[in-house]
Write a structure and sequence with these properties.
mainly alpha, 14 helices, 85% helix, globular
Length: 283
């Protein structure tokens, strides 16, 4: 970047690249700061709206990982508007996908389903199979949280089949973990144990800390369902350590899962402590 001849678009791209690097390293505060600098430049009239949509989506992703779904939703909305202005269907689909996740985190399931279904249709139209199946997986999460477990399982199974067909290991592992959680709920803990172990192995392989933490927690739930309290506690100890490294959303999810497991076996005091700690991650 030459101070004598500033190029807003190139400088915004550089800030965005730095933000992506920090995001991959889980340095979320630094990532968000770089993305913010990038959005200020990408919002200038001399820069096309496609770049603003791209940067705002990245900023939304970082805010989601940090555990700020409301802030993420604002970023995704700015990305959506920019994508529509630039008539960029891929950027629009990504913004819709992110907005669906943010709405789910806030408990607005009607908005979450609307955003995600729109994203699935756009990705299908664009023939982006990988992103389509990832959004299907996310849609399954929404149905599960609404209590519609048959529709949730159908979405996760569809995502798993598609991921295995194209060899996308990350989506395969996320689907396996959610299906394992469903197996615990359906009282088939041995199948849950096997699927959770597969998800853990893939999470280690692809080095996804969030997934690793959650898969370990689901493994703990399967152990608890089999009556192995010692193994369940060991799994949750490892899951909480991984979630603490990841921070934000991952930590809150594992704490909530741990609280539910402890409550199910009558450890009310410990369950309350886990729920209170989860609540503090939102502050």
């Amino acid at each position: 970047h030459s101070p004598s001849q500033p190029d807003a678009e190139q400088t915004a791209l550089a800030y965005n690249a730095a933000g992506l690097a920090h995001f991959q390293l889980n340095h979320l505060a630094a990532a968000i700061a770089y993305y913010q600098s990038a959005t200020e430049l990408a919002g200038q009239e001399s820069v096309g709206p496609h770049l603003l949509a791209r940067v705002e989506t990245n900023r939304g992703n970082a805010l989601m990982r940090l555990g700020d779904p409301r802030g993420a939703e604002h970023a995704y909305e700015r990305a959506r508007l920019a994508a529509e202005r630039g008539e960029n269907l891929r950027a629009l689909a990504l913004a819709r996908m992110g907005a669906g996740e943010a709405s789910r985190e806030r408990g607005d399931y009607v908005a979450a389903v609307a955003h995600m279904e729109s994203a699935v249709q756009l990705f299908e139209r664009l023939e982006h199979r990988q992103l389509q199946m990832q959004t299907q997986h996310n849609l399954g999460e929404v149905y599960a949280e609404q209590g519609d477990f048959p529709r949730a399982r159908a979405q996760h199974e569809a995502a798993l089949i598609a991921a295995q067909a194209v060899g996308h290991r990350l989506t395969e592992a996320y689907a396996l973990e959610r299906l394992a959680a469903g197996d615990v709920r359906d009282n088939t803990p041995l199948r849950a144990l096997r699927r959770a172990q597969e998800a853990i192995a893939i999470a280690r392989e692809v080095k996804d800390v969030d997934l690793h933490a959650r898969a370990l927690a689901t493994f703990g739930d399967a152990c608890q369902a089999l009556g192995d309290r010692e193994q369940a506690d060991a799994a949750y100890h490892e899951a909480l350590a991984a979630a603490t490294r990841a921070g934000g959303r991952a930590l809150r999810q594992v704490l909530l899962m741990n609280g539910a497991m402890l409550r199910s076996r009558g450890d009310v005091g410990e369950a309350a402590a886990a729920f209170e700690q989860a609540a503090r991650t939102l502050s």
